[in-house]
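Sorry, I am new here, but would you mind making up a protein's amino acid sequence and the C-alpha cells describing how it folds?
***
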Amino acid sequence: MKNQVERSLEFIPHSRPTLGEDEVRAVSAVISSGQIAEGEVVQRFESAFAEKLGVNQAVATSSGTAALHLILLAMGIGPGDEVIIPSYVCTALLHAVQYVGARPILAEVDSVTYNINPDDVQKRITARTKAVIVPHMFGLAANLDKLLNLDVPLIEDCAQAVGGTYRQKPLGTFGNASIFSFYATKMMATGEGGMATSNSAEIIERIRDLKTYDEKKADEVRYNYKMTDLQAAIGEVQLGRLDDFVDQRKSIARQYVKSLKSLNLKLPEENSEHIYYRFVVGLETDCNVLIQKLSRKGIGCARPVYLPIHRHLKMDGYPVTDKVWETACSFPIYPSLHAKEVEQIITNFINILKSERDRQ
C-alpha cells in the first residue's frame, strides 16, 4: 500500500488545480458566517468578474453548462431553431442545445488552431440558424473577425479561455453573450461553477429570473442553477490570481516550445495572446500509443477532447476533425506544475517519440 501511495504522489496528472492558504481562509470565513448558499459573496464575485472582464453584468451559475443553457433560453432559442457548434468540443455544448429543443449543427475546425472554422460555419447557416457557439479552444481565441461578419448571433464559450484576449480585448466581450467555467481543471477553479455574461440588460435579467425558482410563480419552468458562497469565495481569490496563472502557463509553454521545436511536430500557433489552457501537440500518427507509454512513465498526457461530437452521433463527413482528434496530444500545463516535472515531461516525451520513430 505504501508503494502505491508513493507512486500516485509521483504521478504527474494531466490537470491539477492551483489552490493555497488564501482559498482556505476564504472558505473558512464563509463557513464561520453560517451563510453557505448563494448570498453576498456570490454578488461580490459577480461584480468583480464583470469589472475584470469589462462587461455590464455577470451572473454566477452552478456550472458552465448551466450558464449556456440559460443563455440559449434568454435568447429565445428553442424547437425548430438551429445552433451551430464545432464537432471538436466536449458534449456540454451538444447537451445545452438539446436542453432547449433546438437542433445542433456540427461544423469543422481549423487544423492549425483547433477552433471552429468560420468558412465551414458559413456553409451551414440557414434561415433557421439562431446562434453560433464559439469555443476558444485550449486558451486560443477563435477567428472572431470572420465569425462576427457572418451576421449571426455569437455565444462565446470561454470555458477554457478566461483571462484570454483577442486583439488586446478580453475574450467574452465580443459575442451577444458569453459563458465561463470554473470546474476544477479550468484556468481558475471553484470545484464546480460557471458564469454568464452579456452587455444586454434584457439577456441578463432573463438569466437571473430563470436560474432560481424560489419565491416565484410556478407558471414557467425555472431552474436551480445557483452558485454557493463557498464556491464564490474560492472564485474571488482565484480571480485575483488569474493574471499570475496566465503568466505561469505562458512560461511553461515557452519551455515546451524551446525543447520541441526541432522535432518536426505541430506545436501551438505562435500567438502572444494564447493563454495555454492546454498545450496541444499534433503528432504524425495516432497519439494513443504515446499517451499510454507516457502514462507508464508517470505522466498524464491525454487527448484534449474525449471524442468529437460527430463520432458520438455516428456521423461522417468531418475529416479535419477526425485527423485532429487522432493526432492531438495534450501535455500537463498548469501553475502548480514544478520545474522538475516540466523537465520530466519533456525528457520522457522526446525519448518515447524518438523510439517510436525508430520503430517505424
